[in-house]
Amino acid sequence: IAPTTSQPPALRQIHHRDLSVDYYSKKCPQLENLVGSITSQRFKEVPISAPATIRLFFHDCFVEGCDGSILIETKKGSKKLAERDAYENKELREEGFESINKAKALVEYHCPSLVSCSDILAIAARDFIHLAGGPYYQVKKGRWDGKRSTATNVPPNIPRSNSTVDQLIKLFAFKGLTVEELVVLSGSHTIGFAHCKNFVGRLYNFKGTKRPDPTLDPRLLKELRMSCPFYGGSTGVVLPLDATTPFVFVNGYFTGLGSKMALLESDQAIFLDPRTKPIALEMARDKQRFLKAYGEAMDKMGSIGVKRGKKHGEIRTDCRVFL
Ligand code: HEM
Ligand SMILES: [Ca+2]
């Protein structure tokens, strides 16, 4: 991953002071309840909305900052693709977008043209983390929605399943996040699923060796091969990122890393590199510490490249289209 040169300098800065917990306390005091009514209903009826929305928030914040740019749809017939149609975003689930659009519709009804899509996404991601058993943290608000969304901005800013720890550390540092925050945020993979194509490279011919990845547990390897054959597998198959508890937010992901249970090469790599391994071990050992660090790291991720004011931002009424 070549850290991008096409990003505005503002992205390097974390603008914590621009956001505040009570930003809407006068304009739309019931905001968190409105979003909360949608997220709790969705969690009951469509639980996959939880991992889908958490990942959506990550992919929003890492491209152009947390500005709702990921939510924009490509104009019909246009050759200029929006972010969500970039290759790296193809597997973002529809359930995440749907959750945000539903929450936005309810919020617009009660507080028209007042609340940004990017703030709704930040609140919904926190709600789903908490609903799944993760930490509850206060969400700072005051983000404005961005005015551009371009597919070509995506590849240098989103990590890949085979990114090296070196690449991950560099990319996260470029976003203002530390090595510890990289490890802690990777703990998001305690819930959710991955498609075969994101780990099939480990199962048969790992880096041209004609053998599987030696850092993969042999029993897990067998199971993964059954679901993901070398030839002719179905592109729709997904498997849990953390085989122990795919729907519960705990530190099982980190204990899994210790026993070669990671699905993604990048996740296993975090457990192998001397810079990240001690942190992963600590998170596996101390669940409370992980949950607290996770809330803090999400808060920080949520303030990457935040936009304020009419020059760079807008408050959309439909998250899928610019004003
Ligand atoms: C550290 C680098 C990271 C890499 C290389 C990475 C890569 C991936 C990949 C390849 C998938 C599977 C997608 C699929 O096949 O459908 C995935 C899923 C997921 N990622 Fe990450 N990710 C990283 C960090 C993060 C962070 C920081 C978050 C959240 C803050 C996150 C949240 C998720 C979630 C919740 C899923 C499950 C999505 C679902 O089930 O729909 N990831 N990630
Ligand atoms: Ca964005």
UniProtKB/TrEMBL annotation:
Pfam families, sorted: peroxidase
Cofactor binding note: Binds 1 heme b (iron(II)-protoporphyrin IX) group per subunit.
Enzyme class: oxidoreductase
Compartment(s) where it occurs, according to its Swiss-Prot or TrEMBL record: Secreted; Vacuole
Domain (Plant heme peroxidase family profile) ranges: 18-323
Protein's UniProt keywords contain Iron: yes
Enzyme Commission code(s) on record: 1.11.1.7
Highest taxon above the source species: Eukaryota
Catalytic activity: 2 a phenolic donor + H2O2 = 2 a phenolic radical donor + 2 H2O
UniProtKB keywords: Calcium, Disulfide bond, Heme, Hydrogen peroxide, Iron, Metal-binding, Oxidoreductase, Peroxidase, Secreted, Signal
Keyword Acetylation: no
Principal location listed in the UniProt entry: secreted
Cofactor(s) essential for the protein: heme b; Ca(2+)
Primary role: Removal of H(2)O(2), oxidation of toxic reductants, biosynthesis and degradation of lignin, suberization, auxin catabolism, response to environmental stresses such as wounding, pathogen attack and oxidative stress. These functions might be dependent on each isozyme/isoform in each plant tissue.
Family to which the UniProt record says this protein belongs: Belongs to the peroxidase family. Classical plant (class III) peroxidase subfamily. Belongs to the peroxidase family. Ascorbate peroxidase subfamily.
Protein name: Peroxidase
